[in-house]
Specification:
The complex is a heterodimer of chains A (292) and B (463). Chain A is built from 13 helices and ten strands. Chain A is an alpha/beta fold and 292 residues long. The radius of gyration of chain B is 28 Å and the shape is globular. The chains are: A alpha/beta (292), B mainly alpha (463).
C-alpha cells in the first residue's frame, strides 16, 4: 500500500494500539489501531455512532479504555501512556487539549477570562499557589501580563479581539466554536483534538474555521486530530484520514485514497455486505486506477 | 371628535360591566370556598357538647372583600398597570449617568459603618446604644462574614453547601474550648479557629467531591447535623446542651482588658465611667475589620488563578478538566476557604456571646445564611452585605415594632411573625429579582473596558 511507505518517513505523535472500549454489552471500539503524525491534521471520520467521540474521550482521559495502549510522544521525546492518566493530567502533563461536540465554554465568564482560565496551571505556579499572588508579588503580575499577551494573540487569530470583554455566552455560535479552539490553544498543547469543529457553522463561519486551523498548523507545532462530518472541511484541510465504522477501522490514508475506498463509500451510502463487490466494480469503471 | 369620545365612553362602560361581572363571580367563588370554613364553626359548649356556631356576618365580610377587590383590580388597577407599561415602552431608553451615591456606594457604606457606633452613642447615650451596636451592628456583621464565606463555596465555586453552620460551630467551639481549657488568648485563637474550620472543610470535602447537585446538598446537610450532634453528645468536653459559658472576653491586643476586675481595664485606664458599651463598640470595630479583611481577600482571590478556576468550575466542570485544572483540589480549596471564614465568624460569635451551645448551630442558621447569599446575588459581595442587612436587620427590627400591639391588640407579639415575614420577603425578592439584589457579575480581567456580565449568562453550578 502506498500508505505504508508514507508513514515510514513520518514521526508519529500519537499511537493508538489495539484500543477497545466496552460499555456493558456494547463494544463501542473494537481493536482500533492508528497513528497521527507530527505536524499533520488527522481526521477521524465515520457514520453516526461509529465510536469517534469515544476514541476522543479515551485519548483525552475522560474514559478509561477496556483494553489497548495510547502513546503520546512529545517533541522533546518524552512519552506518555494516556490511558493511564486522568483527564486533567492528559492536558497538564501530556499537553493534549480538546474541544467538545456540544460547545463547553464558561458562558458567564468573559472571552478574555475564558482564555485566562486555560492558562491556570502556569498562573498557579507564578502565583506561588495563590499565596504569593495574594501578597501582591511582582512575579505574579508579570505572569498575568504574559498570559494576557498570549490570550490577545489567540483572540487575534480567532478574530475575537472586539468581543474580548463580552461574556462568552453572548457570542454567536461560530465565534463560540473559534473561542473554544483558542481556549484549547491557550493551554499550549502539542496535540489538539477537535470534536466536530464545523458542526452547525454556516459556510462563512466554516471558512473562518478552516483558516484558523491552517494557521494553527502553520504557526505552531501543534498537531491536530479532528472528528468531522463536513466532508468539505475534511478533504480540504486534513493530511491523513482514518475512517471508523462500528468501532473498527475500515480505511486509513490520505484524503484522496480514502475518498475512493469502496469500503468507505459502502459505509457512508449503506450498502449490504454482499453488494460491496458490486460497488467496487462500479467505482473501477468510473475512476480506474484511483482505487488500490 | 364626537366619535372618539363616544368610543372611549363605550369602552369604559364595557369595562365597568366586565368588572361588575367578574366581581360577582369572585364573590360566588369566595362564598363557595368560605361557607363551610368561615360561615360555620364547630365549638364546644359548657356541657362539652358540640354546637354549630353560625357566622354569617363574617362570611359576608369575606365575600364582600373578594368582590370589592376583584372589582377594583379589573376596573382600575389592571388598566393603570397596562397604561404604565405602554408609557414605559413608548418612552425612549435613556442611559442614565450613575448618581453620586451609586458610584461611591462602597466608600460611603464603609464610612457610614465606621461612624455608626459613634452616631448611636451620640443619639442614645452609652447605655441606649448597646442594643443598636450589638443586636443590629455586630449581629449583621457576623452574618455578613458568614455569608461572604459561604459565597465562596456556593456563589463562586457553585457547590451547594447546606451544612455551612458546621464550620461556624467548629470555630465557636474551638475558641470556647481552647480558651476555657488552655487559657489561650482571643488573638491567638482567632486564626487557629479559622485553620481548624478549614481543616474540617477539607475533611468534609474529600468524601463529597464525587457528588453533585442535590446529592452534595444532602451530604453537607448531614455533615452539619453530625457536628451538632457530636457537640450535644460529647458531654465530657462540650458540656452537651448546657453549653459552655463564661468564655473569656477579647482584649485590645492584650493591652487593655474588658474584664471589670482586671487592673488594665479599658474604662479605668482612660478614667471613663464603667459601661459595657465600650466592649460592644470595640467588638463592632473588630467585626468590621474582619469583614473588611474577608472582602479584601475575596476580591483578591477572584483575580487569582484559583478564584477564576472556582468560577470556571461553577460554569462547566468538564471543560475545567479538559483545560488541565485539577477539580479535586480546586473544590477542596473552595471548601476550606469558605470554612475558614465561617470558623473566624464562629470564634467571633463565641467571644461576643460569652456562651456557646449547640442550640445556636441548627439547620435553620445554614438556611438563613444560604438565603442571604441567594438573595444578595451569588458572587456579589455588596449584594450579600445588603441582603444580610435587610434580612437580619429587618427581623431584628420587628422586635422593636411595639406600636403594632396598638393595632393588633396586646396579645400580638411581632417577633413571632418575623420568620413568616422573612419568608414572604424572600418570595417577593426572588420574584422581583430572580438573580438576587446584584445579579450581574464583575469580570476579573478586561482588555478595553470593564463590562459587568448579565446574570442570564452565569450558571448556578451543579456540583
Amino acid at each position: 500500500m502506498a500508505l505504508e511507505t508514507d508513514t515510514m518517513t513520518k514521526d508519529p505523535i500519537l499511537k493508538v494500539e489495539h484500543l477497545s472500549m466496552r460499555f456493558g454489552g456494547l463494544m463501542a471500539i473494537n481493536d482500533l489501531s492508528f497513528e497521527a503524525y507530527r505536524g499533520d491534521i488527522t481526521a477521524l471520520i465515520g457514520p453516526n455512532g461509529a465510536g469517534k467521540t469515544t476514541v476522543f474521550n479515551c485519548i483525552t482521559g475522560f474514559y478509561k479504555p477496556t483494553m489497548g495502549m495510547i502513546t503520546l510522544r512529545q517533541k522533546a521525546g518524552k512519552e506518555y501512556l494516556l490511558e493511564r492518566m486522568s483527564d486533567y493530567e492528559v492536558n497538564r502533563d501530556a499537553k493534549v487539549a480538546r474541544t467538545f461536540q456540544n460547545i463547553r465554554l464558561f458562558s458567564g465568564l468573559t472571552v478574555l477570562e475564558n482564555l485566562l482560565v486555560a492558562q491556570h496551571n502556569k498562573l498557579m505556579l507564578a502565583s506561588g499557589y495563590t499565596i504569593l499572588g495574594l501578597l501582591g508579588f511582582p512575579t505574579y503580575k508579570a505572569a498575568v501580563g504574559e498570559s494576557i499577551e498570549r490570550a490577545k494573540y489567540w483572540l487575534d487569530k480567532a478574530n475575537l479581539t472586539d468581543r474580548a470583554d463580552d461574556p462568552a455566552g453572548d457570542l454567536p455560535y461560530g465565534a463560540q466554536r473559534r473561542l473554544e479552539i483558542a481556549r484549547a490553544m491557550c493551554t499550549g498543547p502539542e496535540f489538539l483534538c477537535l470534536d466536530e469543529p464545523a458542526a452547525g457553522l454556516n459556510p462563512r463561519e466554516s471558512l473562518a474555521l478552516n483558516e484558523l486551523l491552517r494557521s494553527i498548523r502553520k504557526d505552531t507545532d501543534t498537531s491536530i486530530l479532528l472528528i468531522e462530518h463536513d466532508m468539505s472541511v475534511v478533504m480540504e484541510i486534513s493530511d491523513h484520514v482514518v475512517v471508523l465504522e462500528y468501532g473498527q477501522k475500515i480505511s486509513d490514508g490520505n484524503p484522496d485514497y480514502v475518498k475512493h475506498d469502496p469500503k468507505v463509500i459502502a459505509a457512508y451510502l449503506g450498502v449490504e455486505d454482499d453488494e460491496v463487490e458490486e460497488v467496487i466494480e462500479q467505482i473501477e469503471e468510473i475512476a480506474p486506477g484511483e482505487t488500490h | 371628535m364626537a366619535n372618539i369620545s363616544h368610543t372611549t365612553e363605550a369602552v369604559s362602560t364595557n369595562l365597568m360591566a366586565r368588572a361588575l361581572r367578574e366581581a360577582f363571580y369572585a364573590g360566588l367563588i369566595a362564598l363557595g370556598l368560605f361557607v363551610l370554613f368561615v360561615g360555620l364553626k364547630t365549638d364546644q359548649n359548657i356541657l362539652n357538647e358540640l354546637v354549630l356556631v353560625q357566622r354569617w356576618g363574617l362570611l359576608a365580610t369575606f365575600v364582600a372583600l373578594a368582590m370589592v377587590g376583584r372589582f377594583l383590580a379589573v376596573a382600575y388597577v389592571r388598566p393603570w398597570l397596562e397604561a404604565r407599561k405602554a408609557a414605559k415602552a413608548a418612552a425612549p431608553v435613556v442611559e442614565r449617568e450613575a448618581g453620586f451615591v451609586a458610584r461611591n456606594f462602597n466608600l460611603l457604606a464603609i464610612v457610614a459603618l465606621i461612624a455608626y457606633p459613634l452616631v448611636m452613642v451620640a443619639v442614645f447615650g452609652f447605655q441606649g446604644s448597646l442594643k443598636w451596636v450589638d443586636n443590629f451592628g455586630i449581629q449583621i456583621l457576623i452574618y455578613v462574614l458568614l455569608a461572604w464565606g459561604l459565597n465562596i463555596v456556593v456563589g463562586l465555586a457553585g457547590l451547594l453547601d447546606l451544612g455551612y453552620v458546621a464550620f461556624y460551630a467548629v470555630g465557636a467551639y474551638s475558641y470556647a474550648l481552647l480558651s476555657s481549657y488552655l487559657g489561650l488568648s482571643f488573638w491567638l485563637l482567632l486564626p487557629i479557629a479559622g485553620v481548624l474550620a478549614a481543616l474540617w472543610g477539607t475533611i468534609l470535602g474529600f468524601p463529597v467531591l464525587r457528588l453533585k447537585g442535590d446529592y452534595l446538598a444532602i451530604v453537607t446537610l448531614a455533615f452539619g447535623e453530625i457536628i451538632r450532634l457530636v457537640l450535644i453528645n460529647w458531654t465530657e468536653v462540650t458540656k452537651g446542651t448546657f453549653g459552655i459559658s463564661g468564655i473569656a472576653k477579647a482584649s485590645v491586643f492584650g493591652i487593655w482588658s474588658f474584664d471589670i476586675s482586671a487592673a488594665n481595664n479599658f474604662a479605668k485606664a482612660f478614667g471613663l465611667p464603667m459601661s459595657s458599651a465600650y466592649y460592644k463598640i470595640f467588638l463592632f470595630y473588630l467585626a468590621l475589620a474582619l469583614c473588611m479583611l474577608a472582602a479584601f481577600v475575596t476580591i483578591r482571590l477572584r483575580r487569582m488563578p484559583i478564584g477564576r478556576a472556582w468560577e470556571a468550575l461553577r460554569e462547566d466542570e468538564i471543560a475545567c478538566r479538559s483545560l488541565g485544572i485539577n477539580t479535586v483540589t480546586t473544590k477542596l480549596t473552595a471548601f476550606a476557604t469558605g470554612a475558614m471564614f465561617g470558623g473566624i465568624a464562629g470564634s467571633f460569635f463565641a467571644v461576643r456571646q460569652g456562651f456557646v451551645s449547640p442550640e445556636s448551630f441548627v439547620f435553620l442558621e445554614s438556611a438563613i445564611i444560604l438565603a442571604i447569599v441567594v438573595l444578595g446575588g451569588m458572587g456579589s459581595l455588596v449584594g450579600i452585605a445588603v441582603a444580610a442587612t435587610v434580612m437580619i436587620g429587618g427581623t431584628e427590627l420587628l422586635r422593636e415594632m411595639n406600636f403594632l400591639k396598638q393595632i393588633f391588640g396586646p396579645d400580638f407579639t411581632p417577633e413571632l411573625y418575623r420568620m413568616l415575614i422573612f419568608g414572604l420577603a424572600m418570595i417577593v425578592v426572588m420574584v422581583w429579582k430572580p438573580r438576587g439584589f446584584v445579579g450581574s457579575r464583575e469580570p476579573t480581567a478586561f482588555l478595553r473596558e470593564r463590562k459587568s456580565v448579565s446574570g442570564s449568562f452565569t450558571k448556578e453550578g451543579h456540583g
